[in-house]
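Meet my pick.
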Amino acid sequence: QVQLVESGGGLVQAGGSLRLSCAASGRTFNSYTVGWFRHAPGSERDVVAVRRYNGVTYYADSVKCRFTISTDNARKKVYLQMNSLKPEATAVYYCAAKYLSGRGYSSPDYDSWGQGTQVTVSS
């Protein structure tokens, strides 16, 4: 397991942008599959975007073409760039990771989780 810390959440108006960051304490994300999930009140925790250890990415249909998952060159951080935000994106966003995971589409695919960061999109 790895300790994860998210940052970058906040309040933004509909149509605006935010960039979330996820850092692994004391290590890089080399060979890790990293996912971003969100949990809105009254809903289940859903996958938003995944970057597998081999660089392949996946996006939920609701965020395709608006959200981008990426890493820095040193793979010390994983980012979620969120553009054209909608009020329904309001949720707590979590970063998750697992070493050499070939999946990553659901919560059980991960063994490390951050504490979450709140994103609120006002209409």
Notes: The mean pLDDT is 95. The longest strand covers residues 91-99.
